[in-house]
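User: Please predict the structure of the protein below. I'd like the answer in structure-token form so I can feed it into my own downstream comparison script.

Assistant: Understood. Taking the following sequence of 160 residues as input:
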Amino acid sequence: MSVYEDLQARFDLPEVPPEGEPALVDVSRHVELAGALKDAGFTMYVTVCASHFPSVTPKVKKGQEPLPPTVEAWEVATVLRRPGPNSEAFAWRVRVERPVVPTLYELFAGADWQEREQYDLVGVIFENHPDLRRLMMPEDWDGHPLRKDYAIDTRVAPWR
């Protein structure tokens, strides 16, 4: 029995994981799932990646009923690895309408700078992170440059 099958019922994961797509987990179970995986030997924090989905009003053809706009959202995907013989990775994601997700720093020290990077570039706040501050951009930088609504033509002075 795989780790996925063991955790499937407990965390309401889909019966068959979507090909190439991490399972969607409720944000309230994010830390609990990470802890269960750590207990199962997934001790290596590989990565966290945040994505921003701005609110969009869908285009419709002439004569069609207008569709409601989508809700702004963020997705945060996390990958853990069980090192050693028969090494395997486990990935999952959470989707939120506010950019706030619990930190995994207390479980994995490797989450520290990676969560800071996602905060800095995408604007996701990792709740209870001990040192959530900019990592790559200057402290006085306005906005988060990897958000989809960040103006690509934002003028900035050169800096090193």
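That's the full token string. The chain has a mean pLDDT of 90.
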